[in-house]
Amino acid sequence: MKFTVFFLLIFFFASVSHTIHGSKNRVPLFIFGDSFLDAGNNNYINTTALDQANFWPYGETYFKFPTGRFSDGRLISDFIAEYANLALVPPFLQPGNNQYSGGVNFASGGAGALVETFEGSVIPLKTQARNYKKVAGILRQKLGSSEAKLLLSNGVYMFSIGSNDYLSPFLTDSDVLKSYSHSEYVAMVLRNMTSIIKGIYKRGARKFVFMNLPPLGCVPGTRIIDVEQNGECLQQLSDLSSLHNRVLHRVLLNLAKKLKGFKFALYDFNTDLTQMMNHPFKYGLKEGKSACCGSGRLRGEYSCGGKRGQKEFELCKKPNEFLFWDSYHLTESAYKNIADRMWGFTNSSYNIGPYTVTDFFQLP
Ligand SMILES: *[C@@H]1O[C@H](CO)[C@@H](O)[C@H](O)[C@H]1NC(C)=O
Ligand SMILES: *[C@@H]1O[C@H](CO)[C@@H](O)[C@H](O)[C@H]1NC(C)=O
Ligand SMILES: *[C@@H]1O[C@H](CO)[C@@H](O)[C@H](O)[C@H]1NC(C)=O
């Protein structure tokens, strides 16, 4: 009898301390950026099918319905949330979403660091930051300022941004790259990104996770821009992403020096994706160049789903054998592969550091 009470007491205190511990160390995930991370915000804005993925066959593999994710299934951020024991992080604009304590997804397909990037069709990073400010205000009202501050500073802030700033001049007939040198343009993109990051930091964020840019000239959609490329990478565009990536690393080191408590993890998405593209078999894939869904050469024409002006498209039978789902985005199996390395389950040597996303969910 005494023993029973004793054990019940132990059990009771263990569960109380677990609960306290759990709320104190709650680490929400806030997501910003472009279609690599958009979980459906663009379903709720006035835009065109070019910047949406809320139609079949998007989502066919995992969700069995189109959620707005630009893939056949889950995204890198969905796997990171899962590994961190969080529920799927809901889009900010999803009606009825007012539970912010596990994080929010602000990302928008087509968005860039520059307001001009696909202007009018996307939620630019600057507006995403403004939406974060709203959420921070709501959390302060709900939890009180000290608890909200703790939650926000514990949070992990994940970014994928920049790709569209470089893609858009090539995909629209813009002359912007004629009026700026490549290094001036990269500097402008990163200055805009930096000032937005500083604003998010000011509202309480401390733990930042960045993916650098993929080799942008080597996705199916950009391999076919010019017939004379013959399906090869568009070197000028890949060079821009490499330049951006070199400067990005310096910019982040600088921010960590200047802003007290600013911590970052940087993932070398560029090298990782290049390896996957060149050696798909090493990653359990069969095809590293052509998309699963689309039309024309390498299925590089952005027609997946038939809602973007062109009705006909081809769809592969086994998306999990492909690196690219559509002309610009990866399959769920590729995203999982990458998330596993980002988390450190498999080869973690693409984490450039100084922190990893895993550190951020474990550190106070
Ligand atoms: C959506 O955008 C189109 C084209 O820009 C415009 O004609 C229409 O009025 C907009 N609709 C709303 C509800 O804002
Ligand atoms: C941000 O980009 C705009 C162009 O979109 C540019 O005019 C402005 O100078 C940039 N801001 C900073 C702080 O560099
Ligand atoms: C891990 O990734 C690095 C960087 O690309 C590579 O050099 C190394 O061979 C990989 N190791 C394994 C075991 O795959």
UniProtKB/TrEMBL annotation:
SUPFAM superfamilies cross-referenced by the UniProt entry: SGNH hydrolase (SSF52266)
The entry's keywords: Signal
CDD domains: SGNH_plant_lipase_like (cd01837)
Pfam families given in the database record: Lipase_GDSL
GO terms, molecular function: lipase activity
Signal sequence, start to end: 1-22
UniProt xrefs under PANTHER family: GDSL ESTERASE_LIPASE 5, GDSL-LIKE LIPASE/ACYLHYDROLASE
Family: Belongs to the 'GDSL' lipolytic enzyme family.
Protein name: Zeta-carotene desaturase
Species of provenance: Vigna unguiculata
